[in-house]
Amino acid sequence: MKTGSLKSQTYRDFIFEEFKKRKTKNSSYSMRAFARDLDLNASRLSEIMNGKVGLSDLKGAEMAGRFGLSGKDREYFLDLIRAEHSRSSIAKKEARERVRMYLLDERTLTDSEVHAVVDWRNLALLELLAVPEIETSASSFAKRLGLPVSEVEEVVAQLVASKMLDTTGERWQALEGDFTTSADVSSHAIQNFHHQMLKRADRAIQNDAVEEREFSSVIFAMSAEQMKYAKDRLREFRRALVRDLEAIPGKEKVFSLSMQLFELKGDAE
User: Fold this and answer.
1) Which of 123, 142, 173, 204 could disulfide-link to 208, CB 3.0 to 4.6 Å?
2) 3-state secondary structure string, the chain?
3) 83: nearest Cα among 96, 73, 72
4) Cα–Cα distance measured from residue 231 to residue 184, given in angstroms and rounded to the nearest whole number
5) Among 253, 256, 130, which Cα is nearest to 203's?
6) What is the full per-residue pLDDT of the chain (269 aa) written as tens digits?
7) What is the dihedral of CA 145, 149, 154, 155, to 10 degrees?
8) Residues 6+ apart with CB under 8 A from 46
9) pLDDT value at position 28?
10) Is the pTM of this model over 0.85?
């Protein structure tokens, strides 16, 4: 059900993608036939697709079954419906948050995007846009990030060329939402990014007051088969923490959260 690099943005996208998939298999397959297969009349389906009427949880669950959706895809489809049509404002807000976190998992950078933005300076600059009072200029960002103005100007030019930053307005705007590099895929660019972050961590240990940083380590034993479980739990924790902190107003600075989990061993094998 992917549309490009992003999952469907509305439940209507899901429905339309399903129709296209069926029509690809049978060129004579019509929207009327599709409505019949969904146990809807054609006019009702048209109203749903045009946003004139919505879907209930019950009808959405039935439709998800007819589409063969299961697991996370099924819940995502239902949350898209709840985010638009839930009668409870709280339930609607919670569904929207689950949709946002789902997209955070699914939004992955292309290879060209990785090489364009997997650099701590680029990501830090984009994140500084969330600080309400900051002046969006190369000199202001250079002061916040501890970089030469000329270096920040190069970063800005790269982000603009990559269509990830718009500097045409009075206040700069990020053009991309949350994203993540693809999980468990080796990449020189991604490896280089992690090296950058380790160097920044070493700088923080040397220069930042202990009240302004948090470094901790624990050594323990586990089986190799538990690695996937451990990685999944760490990713869940990271997403939950960032979600909670993003909801708190009063942003002032940009921080980096890095978590490390690997087999402890020396160079000689």
Assistant:
1) 204
2) CEECCEECCCHHHHHHHHHHHHHHHCCCCCHHHHHHHCCCCHHHHHHHHCCCCCCCHHHHHHHHHHHCCCHHHHHHHHHHHHHHHCCCHHHHHHHHHHHHHHHHHHCECCHHHHHHHCCHHHHHHHHHCCCCCCCCCHHHHHHHHCCCHHHHHHHHHHHHHCCCEECCCCCCEECCCCCECCCCCCCHHHHHHHHHHHHHHHHHHHHCCHHHCCCCCCCCCCCHHHHHHHHHHHHHHHHHHHHHHHCCCCCCCCCCCCCCCCCCCCCCC
3) 96
4) 10
5) 256
6) 333 333 457 899 889 989 998 998 898 999 999 999 999 999 999 999 988 899 998 999 999 999 998 888 888 899 999 999 988 888 888 888 788 767 655 555 555 555 555 678 888 898 888 888 889 999 999 999 989 999 999 989 988 887 788 999 889 988 755 555 444 444 566 677 778 888 888 888 888 888 888 888 888 888 888 998 998 888 888 888 888 888 888 888 889 888 877 765 655 54
7) 20
8) 31
9) 92
10) no
Give the chain's length.
269
| Matching residue, tokens 């202990």 | 210
